[in-house]
Each structure stands twice: as structure tokens, then as C-alpha cells.
């Protein structure tokens, strides 16, 4: 199912339909400030497991990342000291993934690494969805095969052709990008950039 969601003035029933899919454990594809991503309700463990299988992610070895609506929401699912909070406040919303220690509010599948990636994309569509759902959204880039032109992942109609039979909804938020987020490890003393993406970190 392909559904158009706009930057603003969306009818409440449109956001209700997205939230209903997530609440039922369904999968969606949606725009972010980097690439289009695949996600689910992050507190629905079976849905998280589905995405791990689709992406061939081993949660014991790979970080899982969630989208939160705002900084106060992040504090429910990850631990932040004052320097980390200040750093995130300066840079979010934006194209960053901050690696933090997770809390017990996250499902068991997150706890094997004891850490969680935190995203707060600067994109009005996924921000509205996260706020409307009032829960974190697991997020992962759309998978594509090595050697395959990833350009299809910028076009919601092509994404729907490719993944419409796998996910429950593809959200058309306009043309996508092929950027990756900058990954910042906040679990050690100081901050370490694990991957330099499109985001330039402000200290």
C-alpha cells in the first residue's frame, strides 16, 4: 500500500492509519533526512525480529536504532549524562545516530548489546508519525543488493514496486536522498564518530 503524507496539514485519519499498522506489529517504509528507511513499532519485539531477518541483522552484534520524537522521549529509552544531552540538543533534529546505553523500557532483543542508536531525523513526515504514535520507531535503511543501483531507494513508487509485498505500507514523502547519518558513540568517555555521514557534529 502506497500512501501520500505531506510535510504538514495531514488529515488525522491518515496518521491514524499509519499508527494502526505500527500498533498491530506491521512494517512501514518512510522518508527520513537521509535515506528512506524501513521500520516498525520499536516496542513490538516480533516486528523488530522481522526487520532483523529482512536486513540480516544480528542484534547481538549490530546496534539497533530507534526514532524518537523529542529529547524528553529519548530519556525513556536511553541514558544521557549532561554532556551528552547538550551535544544532542545542539545537533537534533538532524542526520545523526547517537549510540547510548539503553534502558529496561526497550524489549529484550535490544539488551544483548546493552546499547541503542538514537535518531531524531529532521524530516516533518516521520516526526509527525513518531509524535502521533507516541512510541519509538525502529529504523533501518532499506536493504539493497551489492552492485544494485540504490537510486531506486529515492523514489517512493519504485520502493513500493520492490517492497510493497513485504511491508504493510510505503509512505510517499517525496523524493528521497542517498545520504547516511553520522554515527556518534556516546558510551565511552568523550564522543567518538564511528561513521562520518552527512551530519557535521557541532560541539
Chain-wise SSE layout:
Blueprint: E1 2-4, H1 12-23, E2 28-30, E3 37-41, H2 45-55, E4 65-67, H3 71-77, E5 78-79, H4 82-91, E6 94-102, E7 115-120, H5 124-133, E8 137-141, H6 156-163, E9 169-172, E10 182-185, E11 192-195
Parallel strand pairs: 1-9, 2-9, 4-7, 6-10
Antiparallel strand pairs: 2-3, 3-8, 4-8, 5-6, 6-7, 10-11
3D structure, described in words:
With 203 residues, the chain is an alpha/beta fold. It has one domain (2-195): DHBP synthase (Alpha-Beta Complex). 29% of the residues lie in helices and 24% in strands. It is built from six helices and eleven strands. It has helices at 12-23, 45-55, 71-77, 82-91, 124-133, 156-163; strands at 2-4, 28-30, 37-41, 65-67, 78-79, 94-102, 115-120, 137-141, 169-172, 182-185, 192-195. Strands 1, 2, 3, 4, 5, 6, 7, 8, 9, 10 and 11 form an eleven-stranded mixed β-sheet that branches. The longest helix is centred in the N-terminal third of the chain and has 12 residues, at 12-23. The protein starts with a strand and ends in an 8-residue tail after the last strand. The mean pLDDT is 94.
Counted up, domains total 1
Provide the CATH topology: DHBP synthase
Mean pLDDT, all residues: 94
User: Helix tally?
Assistant: 6
Q: Output the helix-strand order.
A: EHEEHEHEHEEHEHEEE
Number of strands: 11
Radius of gyration: 16 Å
Main sheet attributes: strand count, strand direction, barrel closure: 11 strands, mixed
> Between the first and last Cα atoms, what is the distance in angstroms?
42 Å
**Uncertain regions: pLDDT < 50 for 5+ in a row?**
none
Shape: globular
**How much of the residues is beta strand, in percent?**
15-25%
The helix-and-strand class reads alpha/beta
- Percent helix, as a range, is 25-40%
The CATH architecture: Alpha-Beta Complex
Instruction: Name the CATH homologous superfamily.
Output: DHBP synthase
CATH class category: Alpha Beta
Amino acid at each position: 500500500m502506497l500512501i501520500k503524507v505531506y510535510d504538514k496539514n495531514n488529515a488525522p485519519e491518515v496518521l491514524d492509519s499509519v499508527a494502526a499498522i505500527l500498533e498491530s506489529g506491521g512494517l512501514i517504509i518512510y522518508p527520513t533526512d537521509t535515506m528512506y528507511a524501513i521500520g516498525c513499532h520499536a516496542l513490538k519485539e516480533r516486528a523488530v525480529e522481522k526487520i532483523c531477518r529482512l536486513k540480516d541483522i544480528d542484534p547481538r552484534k549490530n546496534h539497533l536504532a530507534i526514532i524518537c520524537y523529542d529529547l524528553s522521549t529519548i530519556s525513556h529509552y536511553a541514558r544521557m549524562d549532561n554532556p551528552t544531552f547538550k551535544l544532542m540538543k545542539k545537533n537534533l533534529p538532524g542526520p545523526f545516530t547517537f549510540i547510548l546505553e539503553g534502558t529496561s523500557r526497550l524489549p529484550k532483543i535490544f539488551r544483548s548489546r546493552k546499547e541503542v542508536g538514537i535518531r531524531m531525523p529532521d524530516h516533518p513526515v516521520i516526526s509527525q508519525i513518531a509524535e502521533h504514535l507516541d512510541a519509538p520507531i525502529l529504523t533501518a535503511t532499506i536493504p539493497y543488493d551489492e552492485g544494485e543501483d540504490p537510486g531506486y531507494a529515492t523514489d517512493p513508487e519504485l520502493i513500493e514496486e520492490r517492497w510493497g509485498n513485504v511491508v504493510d505500507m510505503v509512505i510517499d514523502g517525496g523524493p528521497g536522498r542517498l545520504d547516511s547519518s553520522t554515527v556518534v558513540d556516546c558510551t565511552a568517555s568523550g564522543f567518538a564518530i564511528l561513521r562520518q555521514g552527512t551530519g557535521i557534529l557541532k560541539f
